[in-house]
DNA sequence: GGTATACTTGATACAAAATATCAGTAAAGG
DNA sequence: CCTTTACTGATATTTTGTATCAAGTATACC
């Protein structure tokens, strides 16, 4: 069992919810998905190993994980919601408005900013999401050629 | 006509799309909605004044505005996507995992961070979204009392 | 101002995604 | 092992979003 998955399952138990086989399988699949996946794709992954697990349970588990702050649904391009793992602190995305490509980046100096805000509002931050929207290098060139 | 709406409509024209009555009405309603609204609610608002405008057109206009980077769909609690206006540079949200309250804050020192990233990736940033997830003051107290 | 053209619109039908329900099942605590 | 209560999963249903296509309208050109 993955350590990351274990951590999330503990969080579930600590909040008074039960540790079930379905939840174990779903959380494990979620962690293995690298943290970017739709509910339906996650359901498919889970059912490869445990075919008896229903779609509904996957949706419900994701809802629970949202409530616990483990996961956050976002739109990525078009179609269904993508769930991203927030348990590791944060996500940093560069999102191109034209090609909808998502690039991830690391950036820790943002931490300073957050600390400041947290103090001001007396808010207990558990994770964050920073999205920078615009045009990636390639799409920007196309634009300027028109 | 609102200046903000005017600016968005200009952006539409500058990108080779037409300035139509439907788009004017939709953009105006969007700006008046304070920038947090679902597609269907927006359609309702638009149709109060212009009942002939179809739901489909609202969806299509929002799609166009996404492409232009004017708007960004996010999940807020449950149900349909909420569209937030990105035209004024950025959004800064504090989102409580427990009560799902969304507080907005201003924070400009984040600009430095973004500049750095933009250079590194040669990415042309037009707007940004920074979400800090955790527990608000009130919910944090409830937690520690348990 | 009139006309041609291509873009835009809106009614309808359709597909996809998410939710409600409820009988059956399994986890936790004794 | 037994009881209680939360959880599950098949199904049906609602909600949300998309495809289609004839009719309409904005723009460019004359």
Short structural summary:
With 146 residues, the first copy, chain A, is α+β, with helices and mostly antiparallel strands. Helix content of chain A is 47%, strand content 23%. Chain A starts with a helix and ends with a helix.
Topology at a glance:
Two copies of one chain form a homodimer.
Chain A (H helix, E strand, L loop, with lengths): L2 H12 L6 H12 L3 E3 H11 L5 H13 L3 E4 L7 E4 L4 E7 L5 E3 L5 H12 L2 E12 L1 H9 L1
Parallel strand pairs in A: 4-6
Antiparallel strand pairs in A: 1-3, 2-3, 4-5
The structure holds a DNA duplex (30 and 30 nucleotides).
Describe this entry's structure for a reader:
The structure is a homodimer. With about 150 residues, the first copy, chain A, is of the alpha+beta class. Chain A has two domains: about 1-85, Arc Repressor Mutant, subunit A, CATH 1.10.10; about 90-145, Dna Ligase, domain 1. Helices cover about 45% and strands about 25% of the residues of chain A. Chain A contains six helices and six strands, in the order H-H-E-H-H-E-E-E-E-H-E-H. In chain A, the strands form two sheets. In chain A, strands 1-3-2 form a three-stranded antiparallel sheet. In chain A, a hairpin with a 7-residue loop joins strand 2 and strand 3. In chain A, helix 1 crosses helix 2 (about 20-30), helix 2 (about 20-30) packs across helix 3 and helix 3 crosses helix 4. Chains A and B meet through strand 2, strand 4, helix 5 and strand 6 of A and strand 2, strand 4, helix 5 and strand 6 of B.
């Amino acid at each position: 069992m993955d350590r990351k998955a274990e951590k999330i399952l503990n969080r579930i138990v600590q909040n008074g919810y039960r540790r079930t086989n379905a939840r174990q399988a779903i959380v494990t699949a979620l962690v293995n998905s690298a943290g970017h996946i739709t509910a339906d794709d996650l359901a498919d992954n889970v059912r490869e190993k445990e075919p008896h697990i229903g779609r509904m349970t996957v949706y419900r588990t994701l809802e629970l994980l949202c409530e616990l702050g483990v996961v956050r649904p976002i739109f990525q391009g078009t179609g269904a919601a993508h769930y991203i793992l927030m348990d590791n602190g944060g996500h940093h995305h560069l999102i191109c408005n034209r090609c909808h490509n998502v690039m991830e980046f690391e950036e820790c100096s943002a931490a300073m900013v957050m600390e400041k805000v947290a103090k001001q509002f007396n808010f207990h931050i558990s994770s964050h999401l920073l999205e920078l929207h615009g045009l990636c290098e390639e799409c920007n060139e196309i634009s300027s050629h028109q």
